[in-house]
Design brief:
The chain has 203 residues and is an all-alpha fold. It contains ten helices and no strands. Helix content is 71%, strand content 0%.
Length: 203
């Protein structure tokens, strides 16, 4: 009872941590980690520095939380898409088209993938960012490989799930980079279709 009363007397949070994290991620996504200042984050989230520190820790902790959210969201969405019972060719086409739509979005221009576009610049010197990015790549490879193992008859002759999985993941990476450099929707979706042909053959 005493603990309950103590919590009731405590000052309630006046913000939604998930919303704040989304706003902070948008800043990191547009500017990159190094170029994003605490003032930028405070302005975007509407929180002062002490409030940001209290809720998330320092700038690096906030960035890592944003990376982890993106990793979880991306792999969950991919896993759900690959779990459908549609023909493999149709699933891959849908996945790559949807990925292009996501990578071309952004409030200041096409942003690509948050993980690929920002964590790769830190991976050499930042072990935490490197390990999270590596885990994302490995998980993406695994999700594709497991789906291809269920549909080996739909793969091009001679192409194994072990070969096709990193090819599919690598398509994400090139789409992310090309989107961030301003590639058009038509160009990006053509790359996705080419990847489907390499994996499943000409339709």
């Amino acid at each position: 009872m005493v603990q309950k009363e103590a919590r009731a007397r405590g000052r309630p949070r006046s913000f939604d941590p998930d919303e704040v994290l989304d706003k902070a991620r948008a800043v990191f996504w547009n500017r990159g980690y190094a170029a994003t200042s605490l003032d930028d984050l405070a302005l975007a989230t509407g929180l002062n520095r002490p409030s940001l520190y209290a809720a998330f820790g320092d700038k690096h902790a906030l960035y890592m939380a944003a990376l982890e959210r993106s990793r979880a969201e991306a792999t969950a969405a991919l896993g759900a898409a690959l779990a459908t019972e549609m023909p493999l060719r149709q699933i891959l086409g849908m996945v790559f088209d949807r990925t292009v739509d996501i990578y071309r979005a952004g409030d200041e221009g096409q942003r690509g993938c948050f993980l690929v576009g920002t964590a790769t610049t830190l991976a050499v010197e930042d072990s935490a960012a490197r390990e999270l990015l590596a885990a994302y790549v490995a998980q993406t490879d695994r999700l594709f490989r497991e789906r291809f193992e269920r549909s080996t008859g739909e793969l091009v002759a001679g192409v194994t799930p072990e070969v096709a999985a990193p090819l599919a993941s690598g398509t994400f990476h090139t789409l992310a980079v090309r989107a961030r450099t301003g590639a058009s929707e038509a160009e990006l979706k053509a790359i996705g279709r080419a990847a489907v042909t390499l994996i499943c053959g000409a339709g």
